[in-house]
UniProtKB/TrEMBL annotation:
InterPro entries: MobA-like_NTP_Trfase (IPR025877), Nucleotide-diphossugar_trans (IPR029044). This is Nucleotidyltransferase family protein. Residues 10-170 form the MobA-like NTP transferase domain. GO terms for molecular function: nucleotidyltransferase activity. It holds the Pfam family NTP_transf_3. It comes from the Bacteria. PANTHER family: MOLYBDENUM COFACTOR CYTIDYLYLTRANSFERASE.
Length: 200
């Protein structure tokens, strides 16, 4: 049996940003786009693979990331909700990296996610031998969140608008967290985006 090796980072970037009115992945912040920022942070982290799950606006996102070393997979069912992108990402990881130790799920609209945070999630998983390590903000757990590969079957059962938080609660005994106060800042509306720009 081959030794399990490293963690993948799966960036969920398939949504059509209906509340924003334009692709949030391509919003500019501090000289780059949100999707390029998080993809570059993931590539820089000590992970084994970076997978970007696209859906709506797939060609625009691929164009934006054209020079980076990552793997893209298109979620044909992106309109069915977040869970379909999680399932697409997990299936791709299992197919391309069958010996992976686990995966971190991240979204493209948290502008303050960085390489330090990704590495902290991995370090915590290794130190604590935890199967789940979530980011903690606003008295809740959220993304980015790491799952060891033993949770891949459970992740594949998610459907509709369900996110991974459901599993963090279900398997709370095997979960730990790291503080990420800025995780509460995400971009869903033009108001959110303008506020981010004003405060930068």
């Amino acid at each position: 049996m081959q030794e399990l090796s490293g963690y993948a980072i799966i960036i969920l970037a398939a949504g059509n940003s209906s509340r924003l009115g334009e692709p949030k992945q391509l919003l500019k912040y501090q000289g780059t786009t949100l999707i390029r920022h998080i993809t570059e942070a993931a590539i820089e982290a000590k992970c084994a693979a970076v997978i970007v799950v696209t859906g709506s606006n797939a060609s625009l996102i691929k164009e934006e990331l054209h020079s980076l070393s990552y793997h893209v997979v298109n979620n044909q069912n992106w309109e069915k909700g977040m869970a379909s992108s999680i399932v697409t990402g997990v299936r791709e990881v299992i197919k391309k990296h069958p010996n992976i130790a686990g995966a971190i799920f991240a979204v493209s609209d948290q502008p303050f996610v960085n390489v330090t945070l990704f590495n902290a999630l991995i370090d915590k998983a290794l130190e604590q031998k935890s199967g789940i390590v979530a980011s903690e903000y606003d008295n809740t757990f959220g993304t980015p969140v790491l799952f060891s590969n033993k949770y891949f079957p459970a992740l594949l059962t998610l459907s509709g608008a369900e996110g991974a938080k459901k599993l963090v609660k279900k398997f709370a005994d095997d979960a730990t967290s790291i503080p990420f106060p800025l995780g509460s800042i995400d971009i869903d509306t033009q108001e959110d985006y303008q506020k981010l720009l004003r405060n930068s």
